[in-house]
Amino acid sequence: MWTRRAILAPLFAQEVTFRAGVDVVNLLVSVRNGAGQWVNDLNEEDFLLSEEGTPQKISYFARQSDLPLRLGLLIDTSMSQQKVIAAERGAAFRFLDQVLRERHDLVFLIQFDTLARVRLGFSDSRVQLEEVLTGIDTPTQSELRARGGAGTSCLDAIASGAELLKTQSGRKAMIVLSDGVDSSSHHTLPMAIEAAQRADALIYAVYFTDPGFYSNAFGLPDGRAILARLARETGGALYEVSRKQSIDRIFGWIEQELRNQYSLGYVPVSRGGYPSFRRIQLITRRKGLIVRTRVGYWPRTGSP
Fold first, then answer.
1. CB-based contacts of 23: which residues, under 8 Å, 6+ apart?
2. What is the pLDDT of residues 132-147, one digit of tens each?
3. HEC secondary structure over 147-209
4. Domains observed in the chain
5. Helix (H) or strand (E) holding 135
């Protein structure tokens, strides 16, 4: 998504002035080496950026950005999560307690089962977050009867989170705790991806499943593949909870990534004949490094 900037705030490594009304594409970038370690000593000159094959000039650049964090925590409370929801709640609060900087960062909470519901709007209060997280649980039998049965609306939750984030600035991300199986959303997978891309929001998907719940079911969608695509096309990552990888350990990895990102932006070189969605290619001059950022963006209406 393009944002309008007149003067960049001095949160960046250098202050850069643009003329009023200039549209800037903003990227959050993570870089690892072949051993999986974070690489945080790169400079602007180490990156090669292009859009739809056309080289682009990086207009601003910063390492380990101190930009405010706008984070959404989306928790699957459908019946398939009944046996793992307690672990999700506890790990989520421990993560937020580590990451959240009061009066600087903001977090919102969405609970989704049959419907997606915003349980807490943007907040920087640990007390408030803990109180709301404690009350997030799978529905009772009477609640299921009142709603006309069970269901999961993961994609609707992502679209709702993107709507909250699209007017925010800074580093924007959603952490989705789910098995990825969706049975009641109005949004399709492409629609949810587009909503997140338009909001400039990364998706970190945490695949947490109770294998026994679907043991006798047939024909269900591949929830892991759905979460993987959401993460890949927004520049985030997919993690899978297992015996070797606890949910606390996964939250630790997400925290490390949020603390080891590069922030860069550019003013696109206008070219005719582009598709509506514009693909971004970002690599490093240094060989053997793995760069992760969003795959592209949707121009604002009326862009050339």
1. 2, 3, 4, 267, 268, 300, 303
2. 999 888 766 676 666 6
3. HCCCCCCHHHHHHHHHHHHCCCCCEEEEEEEECCCCCCCCCCHHHHHHHHHHCCCEEEEEECC
4. 69-259 (3.40.50.410)
5. none
